[in-house]
Amino acid sequence: MEQHSEESVEKLVKLGFVTEAQQKEIKEYKQLGLFSLHTELLFLLYLSVLLFTGGVGTLIYKNIDSIGHMAILAVNFALMVVCLYFSFKKAKGFSRDEVLFENPIYDYVVLTGSILGCIFIGYLQYQYSIFGSDFSLVSLFSAIFCFGIAYYFDSRMVLSMAITALAAFVGITLTPKTVFQNEIYSNPTLSYYGLALGILIVLWTVYSMRENLKKHFHFVYFTFAQHLLGVSIVAGLLEMNWWLFIPFLVGFCYYFYTVSHKLKATSLFVFALIYGYIGFNILLFKCVDFLDPFNIFDFIIILSPVYVIGSIVLFIKLVRDFNKEKNAGLQ
Amino acid sequence: MLAYNKELLANSFLVSEAKNLYKMKFISKSQLADIATQLPLLQSNRNILVRIGFFLLGCFLFSSVMGSVIMLFMPLLENNYKVMVYFYALIGLVGTEFLAAKKYHKHGLDDAFILSMQGAFYAAIGISFEDSLLVFMAMVVLGLVCCIRYVHTLSALISCIGLVGLLFNLITEQHLMATLFLPFVGFLLAIGIYFVYRKLHLNPKNYLYTNALLVTKVFGLVLGYFSLNYMVVRELSQSLMNITVEEGADIPLAFLFYGLTFLVPLFYIGYSIYTKDRMMLIVGILTLGYSFFTIRYYYQLMPLEIALLLGGIVLFAIVFAAIRLLKDKETGVTFKPDRSADTNLILNAQALLVNAQVDVKPVAGQENMPFGGGGFSGGGAGETY
Q1: Residue B29 CB: number of other CB atoms within 10 A?
Q2: Given CB atoms, is A53 within the 8 Å cutoff of chain B?
Q3: In angstroms, what separates the C-alpha of A103 from chain B's closest C-alpha?
Q4: Same domain membership, residue A154 and residue A129
Q5: Distance from B72 to chain A by nearest Cα, in Å?
Q6: A192 and A324 fall within a common domain
């Protein structure tokens, strides 16, 4: 509704919020009739990289034990070198702050190079067992490789691959799909590893923010740490030694609540509340379970709307506080 | 008819326009803050995550109310469970009206109650009449009413789905006409929906319903594509007309559907760039991806990995050429980032999404993955393009 957008601006001018000079500027800009395909084209580029590397990965593993596989592997290695060579040539070098390529295509060249590198490392281990019989070392090596590239070329995509590889090193599959299906690991003791890794990531992020080392990576780090910790704690609460995780739950909620307020990051705020609420309800169910002999189950169902309304009121208040602070930050 | 104060609704549009202007750096932060604080507004959540959170809470509330009602009236309701479902719909209506009176709009809670009310009502009709035709009719009418009264975007979608369901039901169950015409009738309906959208969209009086109209348009475009998509037509004609496709044979008019499966998305893409319509462009790109999937589903011309490789290279070449072409353009269609584009948001989103496709896990467990097939990425991306 183009004409409506103009009317809105007109109204804002009438109400005295927008000056006439600004309105003129807006009109002139609209007359250019710009239609930017920036996001769409970059998204397609991203898709093409994923398709291509997916094809390479499948090709190599399907042709293991056949004659051509050495050739394919050599091509893979050569392509990786070419990608990294071009990236090095165009990169402005390492910096503690954010550095962007002049042409965003190179972000994707870096991504291609890193994925091919990971495929190569994984394959070497698979065929020649260069890291001995311990397969998890491959993940560690991939993680180091990706961290190096991510920090040098300032690539958040490669950074996120590095963190995933690090989680794989301790035995956790950390992808959006597994987080939502609550399948990040199969072994209960991994809750403790998950906690440890999550806390380590948080500590590293806090350290880098203080030292001004790639400060803009913090959102990716915090998001990973939050989900890793959240899922580990929720899983831990359902285990035998559940009471051990109660202090972690409290600390987790408190920490991410304050961090989200500080960074004005809505997603961190929302997930802190969601994990906290899930954890709290698990504990509540444990209490109800404990009181079960008294046969109060019917009574609880009848009272449940009151509980839900109570939590809604609480959440509305929390969100309002958060928004107030966020909007105050606008000024 | 409108459940909310029109002035307040209009203000929320002013604020979102102001937000756009701020993102495009035309107005300053303090100007935006003035607008957002001085105009009286409805209770809304602009952040989608917060809204989804409240939506879930609203659904909890609705179901917990249902649970306690069952507990309280259990003895009375031995044989009257049908009445019960109507009663739930009534609870939904009361909740919806209450929230509207309390000025909750696009908040999440109101979405939960509007949708639960409709769900309960359709379930009630389905249970008492056992006729899907009536349910679809109810969806068309009640969806439209909710969309207009509560300015509720998703209800417009429900109404559209009801319309398609109604048509489908009339042709396949009531035999209004030969099933052979189903794809074309669907396409005509899509064109109809698009023209209704055009007409309503051009009337400035309807600006409160901008989002609902947008959903209607996308629905029309998607319906137009899928009613002529080869896979949909083939599967439907197999199940509805009992046509069995033998080796070397094909469904009637196959060549037409092959052609349209690709022509429709290409038309969307071309027309959207010509008219600068971003939504249509996205629908075009996604449907074109589905077209490739459709063809690969029936004809495996080459193994998956080669298809992925070639697809990746061809796509890269096309995008590279397009970027080259648009790079230095200052007006019209361009590669320059939008003034309102939030680069930080895009970078973060891509970073988090990369893990959904790329798997850096080692192929360690030989027993469950003998040749590591697809251990390193693969399937996930394959379907989208």
Answers
A1: 12
A2: yes
A3: 10
A4: yes
A5: 7
A6: yes
Query: How is residue A215 written in tokens?
Result: 């400060």
Find the DSSP H helices in B130-181. 132-150, 153-172
Q: Is A242 on the interface with B (CB under 8 A)?
A: no
Verify that A214 and A156 share a domain, yes or no. Answer: no
Position of tokens 């929906």?
B193
CA–CA separation, B295 vs A134, rounded Å?
A: 43
Q: Residue A331: inside a domain, yes or no?
A: yes
Q: Report how far residue B122's alpha carbon sits from residue B136's, in angstroms, rounded to the nearest whole number.
A: 8
Q: Which of B50, B71, B336 sits opposite A298 (nearest CB)?
A: B71
Same domain, A161 and A45: yes
Query: Which of A22, A32, A58 has its CB closest to that of B304?
Result: A58
* Domains: count for chain A: 3
Shared domain for A48 and A22, answered yes or no, is: no
* Residue B371: pLDDT band with limits 50, 70, 90: very low
Q: What is the mean pLDDT of residues A182-206?
A: 81
The reply to whether A287 and A213 lie within a common domain is: yes
Both A221 and A242 in a single domain? yes
Segment A100-116 mean pLDDT = 88
Q: So what's the pLDDT on residue B374?
A: 33
Residue of A1, A315, A266 whose CA lies nearest to B46: A266
Residue B369 contacts A where some CB pair is shorter than 8 Å: no
Residue A178 belongs to some domain of the structure: no
Report pLDDT digits (tens) over B12-23.
Answer: 888 888 888 888
Give the residue-averaged pLDDT of B239-261: 81
Is the per-residue pLDDT at A129 higher than 80?
no
- Is B72's Cβ below 8 Å from some Cβ in A? yes
In a domain, A327, yes or no: yes
The token pair at B156 is: 């417009």
Owning domain of residue A22: 1-35
| CA separation, residue B339 to residues A42, B150, B329 (Å) | 16, 33, 15
Which chain B residues contact residue A18 at CB under 8 A?
A: 18, 21, 27, 31
Q: Which chain B residue lies closest to A216 (C-alpha atoms)?
A: B344
Asked whether residue A250 is assigned to any structural domain, the reply reads yes
Which chain B residue shows the shortest CA-CA distance from A119? B376
| pLDDT value of position A148 | 93
Does the pLDDT value for residue B228 go beyond 80?
yes
B192 touches chain A (CB under 8 A): no
Whether residue B362 and residue A41 make contact (CB cut-off 8 A), yes or no, is no
Q: Across chain A, what does the average pLDDT equal?
A: 84
Residue B359 banded pLDDT, cuts 50, 70, 90: low
The reply to whether A93 and A137 lie within a common domain is yes
Q: How far apart are CA A273 and CA A283, in angstroms?
A: 15
Q: Does B75 touch chain A (CB under 8 A)?
A: no
pLDDT score of B172? 86
Given a contact cutoff of 8 angstroms between Cβ atoms, the answer to whether A61 and B371 are in contact is yes
Q: Which residue has the higher pLDDT, A315 or A300?
A: A315
Contact A156 B359 (CB under 8 A): no
pLDDT score at B100:
92
CB A50 within 8 A of CB A56: no
ipTM of the complex: 0.83
